[in-house]
Amino acid sequence: MDLNRIGQTLKDKRIKLGMSIRDLANTCQIAPSTISLIENGKTSPNLLSLKAICDTLNTPVFSLLLDEAQEKIRLVRKSDQSSFIRNMSNGKPMTEHLIIREISEMYAALVNVPPHTDSGDYAHHGGEEFVFVLKGSILFDLEDNARYTLEEHDTLYYPNCIGHRWENGTDTEAEILLVSTSPYKF
Length: 186
Prior knowledge:
By secondary structure, the protein is of the alpha+beta class. It is 26% helix and 32% strand. The protein has 2 domains: 3-71, Orthogonal Bundle (434 Repressor (Amino-terminal Domain)), CATH 1.10.260; 78-180, Jelly Rolls (Sandwich).
């Protein structure tokens, strides 16, 4: 939570209503010093205090979080997507097109998997992944677990602490949508 933004929003609403900190404090039964700390982003209000302040300012509590959520909306046009070679397998490049990254808590990528290629050794890292097969067929191998042959529109979820790799043993290209909560580095 951005305490400075929330505090400033509450302060702006209070001033717009023509209330002093003391007026708000008396109505909410909260110490003026506490309201000052909240408005200046110096402390996180407890839920009861926040509800009392918001009720007095005729502001829904959830509205304080909306702006923060709206700031995270990201539109990435196809022309702005970064593409790179994930790795080479059997002399063929496995191309990845990043769809979501940066401040998101996840990243998403379209991965083109040429025929008779694989992702390399098992990967182990934090977070979790979701795979959706858009085109073709691909074998996902989860270390010390099962091997899953995924066809078009099949999905697979797994925690990334489980070693994972994939391969396309067919004669046609496969394309997967990969969504991960792992920190992404390239």
